[in-house]
Fold this protein.
Amino acid sequence: MPSQAVFDFKEKAVYTTSTGAPVSQPYAAQRIGKYGPLLLQDFHHVDVLAHFARERIPERVVHAKGAGAHGYFEVTHDITDLTCAALFDAIGNKAPVTVRFSTVIGEAGTSDSARGPRGMGIKIKTEEGNLDWVFNHTPVFFIRDPAKFSPFVHAQKRDPQTHLRDPDMSWDYLSQNPESIHQVMILFSDRGTPAGYHRTHAYSAHAFKFVNSEGKFVYVKIHVINDAGCKTMTAVEATRLAGEDPDFGIKSLFNDIEAGKYPSYTVYIQTMTSEEAENFRYNILDVTKIWPQAEYPLRPVGKIVLNKNPENYFAEVEQAAFAPSHLVPGIEPSTDPVLQARLFVYPDAQRYRLGVNYGQLAINKPVVPVANFQRDGFMAIKNQGFRPPYQSSILPLQYKAKAYEHVEHEVFLGAALADLSEVTELDFEQPRALWSKVLNDEDRAHLVSNVAGHLGSAKSAEIKARQLSVFAAVDQGLADRIADAIGVLRVQPLKVKPAEEALRFRSSVIV
Ligand code: HEM
């Protein structure tokens, strides 16, 4: 059912063609006599047919299924020591927010209960332009080498021959790329089946840099913590919902907001100086790792409240374009290679999906005026009038100086090389802590049965054994329990390089 506002709204609009001409009978078509051919001169009917044939735009290549809402971000704590972003220059600052939640691998019609990450794209419209946080509900990711992203996604999507999701293909990829194990274990626990889109937390996963007006920076990870807590489901509940109510996530978000039960989140940051980063046990540019909260505590900075449903899903959610590269002065990307690749790929996907002027759509348009030298292209809605499209002396633009000229510790120099990470013992430490310290007995039992249900349906004995060896490298008991559950032989842990050979983080590199 639509929102109450739709029932209450008494519209007096007159039906027209797309060019505004009134039409008395929208369902009528011009033809010769009662039984003759239709007429090409009937612009209204031809236009209706032609428009209908063009209604679909490409769905997002990942994160195709989703739900969205609007609200606001409010600054609750002072972090002016860390960033000069205008958004954060005073406690109480507020900015409008649009959020889109999503599942990742399935197509636009997939179930909201599908196992996998949940995305939370957050667009904050600040007085210095849009700040997008394009986060997932897990604090780590499957890969740390960006060139693996599309092969990884392909292996999780449909088989090229059968057009079926295929457990052999899925585990074939994962077992050969064991740095994925941390994320795999989180997602095969019940955290992989959240009880609704807005019932989870969200994490930047990558380190960003917050830069203050002196050009000093700290590395920052952002956590968006649901004030109502994170709610998950068992595999049995998720499977039931996939059949009975596959859109339950969209529905519960919409209904909660309609009922005034506004989802709210507290935004925290973890920070690290570059010196701390160099002494940290893990490479801070490795998005398969977390920063332990005991060592790097959460510092509250703000809150997000979602208090408004979209009036039009397509215009306000489907056409929303979130990109990690939509940043504001005082917040910069780190050199995490996965983040660096993402800086390019999101706007590129949106140029393809929505058109080159996607930024001019109402939902993506910043609250501040845009003035630059970009012009034309399909669907140029606001083409900047008579403003010269170059640095003109006739009608010069103003240029606002950056608060900082350059960021300290930013010297990267070296020969071009083909970089590919290697797996070491270090990669199993955090998954091991997850298994032995974070999960309780019930969580562990669910993880074992969730993996067994999926890995057990792979046909290849070799793939099953290889993935079991990855689990054994985390914990032999975990691997043995899965092996027993799927009725195959127990295996030895995967042999990898020692932890000392792992790449250490250096903030400035001159080779
Ligand atoms: C190399 C790694 C990655 C690549 C190449 C990649 C690529 C993409 C692409 C092409 C889209 C569709 C964008 C659109 O059409 O608007 C997308 C959506 C998304 N990605 Fe990624 N992604 C990567 C890693 C990540 C990571 C690490 C996260 C979270 C920490 C993430 C979170 C999201 C979210 C939340 C969306 C949906 C945004 C929306 O609702 O519109 N992705 N990704």
